[in-house]
Amino acid sequence: MTDITPNHTPNTIKCPNCGTLFTIDEAQYADIVQQVRTAEFEGELHARLAAAEKAKETEIALAVASAQQQAQQTSATKDTEIQQLKGELKAAAANQELAVAKALSAAEKGLLEAKSKLELQAAEQKVREAALKESHAMELAVKDELIARYKDMKAKLSVKLLGETLEQHCEIEFNRMRSLAFPNAEFAKDNDASGGTKGDYVFRDFSDDGVEYVSIMFEMKNESDASSTRKKNSDFFAKLDKDRNDKGCEYAVLVSMLEEDSELYTGITDVSHAYPKMFVIRPQFFLPMIALLRNAAQDTITVKAELEQLSKQNIDVTNFENELEDFKAAFGRNYDLAKRKFDTAIEEIDKAIDRLQKVKDALLGSGNNLRLANDKATALTVKKLTRGNETMKQKFSAIEASEQRIAD
């Protein structure tokens, strides 16, 4: 440490090792003084820290001793409590072992009962499975027999009969819902073959006022599984469209079981691109198709009623004109017929007059002849008759003599 004494000037310091004096300015001197003070402060601080550390160690030792004493007391108390707890634990363990033993006994008994029940259920299950297998085998045999009979029946059915079977199905389905869904509708077979062909069924529905607002021509097509020639739905489109037009129907629907594997004909198929207002459906969509078209057409009932009224008015005017023309034609025909008969009657009268004139002339000629004959008869006498006839004279003379005798 640098020695600074008051015997020296403030600008002079002496080295404690070699005794050499140094001259410094005030700034350097102040700096050195500051360093000396700092060093002294640090030394004092270290001393105080050491004393505090020692006091702390003394206190810690005292605390440790007190804590050890308390720990010993606490340990003794804990040992007593531990002994009590061990006793209680042993008692609890004994009770637990007893409870476990009882539980195990009950569990073993329940397990035995469960095993017995399981064995019984297993036996019953085997019996049921055997019965089910036997029943299933019988059902399969019955179904196989039914399938075989159905296939045999379908193989024996003609194409017409198959079609009629599908027709009967559709007719039955419609009649089941007629009173509920179609109270004003008509659904009947198409028996009019005046156009050369006819469909299977015609559906027509009417409003409460009797105005027809929807009509459908139906064709039903089925096919035997064993049929060698497979028909296509498109084979019947042209005929169905012709039947629709001939019978004045708005829509045409083909109810078909043909082309069963086709991905096109799976439900309701619109084929209007080929023929207007034509659909191909499977039988299960028969009633939904009617309802769909019927509901779509119900919005047009008012319009169709007005058109029907206008049509009736036009028909009335047309009918009046037609009736007038028919009357004129009939009157003309009757006039011509009457004229011909009148002319014929005049001719017949003329002919009759001629015939009567001839009869008159003949009668007049006959009268002259009768007059001449009467004159001749009047002029005839017995003498004239017997002149030149001796035999007759004698006969007449004998007759006269006989009449004379009778008179006498």
A few lines on this structure:
This protein is of the alpha/beta class and 408 residues long. It has helices at 26-156, 159-181, 237-246, 286-297, 301-379, 382-386, 390-407, and strands at residues 12-14, 21-23, 186-189, 201-206, 212-221, 251-256, 268-270, 278-281. Strands 3-4-5-6-8-7 form a six-stranded mixed sheet, with helices on both faces. A two-stranded antiparallel sheet has the order 1-2.
List keywords for this structure.
single chain; 408 residues; alpha/beta; six-stranded mixed beta sheet; 7 helices; 8 strands; elongated; coiled coil
Describe the fold and architecture.
The protein has 408 residues and is of the alpha/beta class. The chain contains 7 helices and 8 strands. A 6-stranded mixed sheet has the order 3-4-5-6-8-7, sandwiched between helices. A two-stranded antiparallel ribbon has the order 1-2. A hairpin with a 7-residue loop joins strand 7 and strand 8. It is elongated and about 255 Å long. The chain starts with 11 loop residues before the first strand and ends with a helix. The N terminus is likely disordered.
